[in-house]
Amino acid sequence: MWADLVRRTNRLVPDASVAAVADALDYLCLAQLYLRDNPLLARPLTPADVKTRPSGHWGVCPPVNRMLAAMGPLQAAVPDGYELHVLHGAGHAGPSALAHAYLTGHLGRAHPGLSQGEAGLRELVSGFPRADIGGEITPMIPGHLHTGGQLGPALAIGQGTVLDAPHRLSVVLIGDGECETGTTAASWLATRALHGTGDHGTVLPVVLLNGMRMGGPSVLSALSRAELTAYFTGLGHRPVYSDGLVIGQLRQAVAEALCTAQPLGIPGPSSVLVLTLDKGHGTPAHLAGTPAVHKTPLRDPAGVPAEFDALADWLASYQPAQLLTSGGRPRPHLLPALPQARSEPGGLPAPRGCVAASAHVAAHAAGRPFAQVVPEVLRARAEQGPFRVFSPDELASNRLNLTDEDGRPVPWAAEVLSEELCHAWAQGYTETGRHALVATYEAFAPITLSLIQQQLKHRSVRRHAGLAPLPSLVYLLTSLSWHNTITHQNPSLTSALLASGDPTLHVLTPADPARTAAALTFALRKLDRCTLVVAGKHATVHHPLETLDEELRHGIATWPHLTHPGPGEPDLILASAGDLPAEALTTLARRLRAERPGLRLRYVHVHDLTALAEDGSRPLALEPDAFARHFGTRVPIVLATSGHPADIHALLGRRHPGPRLTVLGYRDPGRPVSQEHLRRLCGLDDAGLWQLATTLTDTPKEIPA
């Protein structure tokens, strides 16, 4: 379909129109970087028209602009029911994205002050880099699925966008510097892990082989044409080359690449387009080929006469009056190559009945092991609509049997030994409106920390832009520290994400497999959250479910079966966050009730760590009265968590109960130790907990704040 469409548009849309769009994009990028007035050179340029401190990135713009221009006729002709997305690997092409959105009218629809017209053009140029939108690619610029704040994941994110979407083409623009990252390098081969896993769309990777990174020559540019061809061929791709200088030849290269592009997951070679335009093409000759072209090649044209003259000649070479009208609109000969603004697709319906559905799942799962109930939840979710599970070769190890009756992996679960790829695939999948889960070892999840943080920034900007909510990012973290060797002990993903303060983050610490099943059901139904479900695959102890609704709604509940009734404060509060902590503290509670019947206990389970946060800082943060109802005002508290104790102290912040709170959690042993030794070191062994509880309750009840 795509090959036929590009051939047809190549016949119907003149090359001159596409070339004019490329020139207009180049000019608008340059004008944004340098001009504060006189955006169309309607009068002779003066130093007063030039920004005193130009900022932004020019180097990546020319090759990006040629690709945007070449794709324009195809985007304009995409029939209803089909989608074409362009993903930028680097966010530095912000000027290109803004210029393109201005020419198509998308920018003006999202930001009326930047509508096509004399005032809008002046604001576009003089206001760059804009504090409200940014100088790099963000969702504030319409139509962008990937912010590009971190190099590496764009190709894998593009692959995720087309999974189970045969109607979608994603064109991914990848810098040759980005090809040096491990995530991009893995992405070329990783498609083989998707063979036979569904009916997918098509990805066209475009390598912008401009010869340089930020500070010098790229590694890829050192390869000869024969070596490049051998490299891409060995990775399973058929390279198509173009220098981009002649627009007609570039359009033919795009057509050739799309003719041989295979839908994702189809065995056999697929295309990669290699655009060999020099970085910063068009830069004054004395700066071409130097690192200066990465940002603003002319550093002070307002103050240095020679630089001013070079800038004036450079701007004038585009003949902007031939590209844009005096009113700031694209001239008629550009229009055939410009896609018109379309209405955005509708958002997902708000989820309803999440608590009831999750409680129903928990009731069915009660008393059954993790290995049974969690796969059931995932299979049930897969039957409800588009859904994917991604795991770095750990499903079987994590007791997640996702195979069919013949023992073959189900088509909606994919494993590849790269945490970064699993995250990027899930990111592309969820950013296009489908639900996904990443299941991995707790210790290896921190590898994806930067990617998660970048996606959370992207989502935050989406919300600021008023865009519709998307499915949540959901991680299932199993194989917890308590049951692993020292190399597999690292609960720090939770610590780092909590430190970010993102209000959409939820860290679920269910007490048993039934609650884990409920937590996953709940997390996969919600929209626009980032949820970590921390649950050990070895959990065997089960607890009454009478407070589950409260745990799901408020993130915390007092367990009545272990709490002495009546008014007033107890003598000791035990609080658990996680399955092993719940096992350890409920054992302690039962022993205290049996051997010290006069001791008044309150038992609290923290199902969502964010409930502990300072009042008003997070959606589930307990109000002061509710916090006091759970944790009292003067009695000792023992709180055990699956993660680092520091997480709890940081969450509590200014309402920390002070010396009456003892937090127990993971401590790095510094050397290999047995599981029993690790529990003793962390204070979660039976003897250590008994000594702590009796010491606390044998001291005076009043503990100074």
Structure explained in plain terms:
This protein has 705 residues and is α/β, with parallel strands linked by helices. It is built from 23 helices and 16 strands. It has helices at residues 2-12, 15-34, 61-77, 94-104, 106-110, 118-126, 154-162, 182-190, 225-234, 247-259, 305-316, 354-365, 370-382, 419-431, 449-464, 492-500, 513-525, 548-554, 579-595, 624-631, 645-652, 675-681, 686-698; strands at residues 83-88, 168-175, 202-208, 237-242, 270-275, 387-391, 413-415, 435-441, 473-478, 505-508, 530-534, 556-558, 572-577, 601-606, 637-641, 661-664. Strand 4 (237-242), helix 10 and strand 5 (270-275) form a beta-alpha-beta unit. The radius of gyration is 29 Å and the shape is elongated. The model is unreliable at 701-705 (pLDDT under 50).
SSE layout and pairing:
Layout: H1 2-12, H2 15-34, H3 61-77, E1 83-88, H4 94-104, H5 106-110, H6 118-126, H7 154-162, E2 168-175, H8 182-190, E3 202-208, H9 225-234, E4 237-242, H10 247-259, E5 270-275, H11 305-316, H12 354-365, H13 370-382, E6 387-391, E7 413-415, H14 419-431, E8 435-441, H15 449-464, E9 473-478, H16 492-500, E10 505-508, H17 513-525, E11 530-534, H18 548-554, E12 556-558, E13 572-577, H19 579-595, E14 601-606, H20 624-631, E15 637-641, H21 645-652, E16 661-664, H22 675-681, H23 686-698
Parallel strand pairs: 1-2, 2-3, 3-5, 4-5, 6-7, 6-8, 8-9, 9-11, 10-11, 13-14, 13-15, 15-16
Antiparallel strand pairs: 12-14
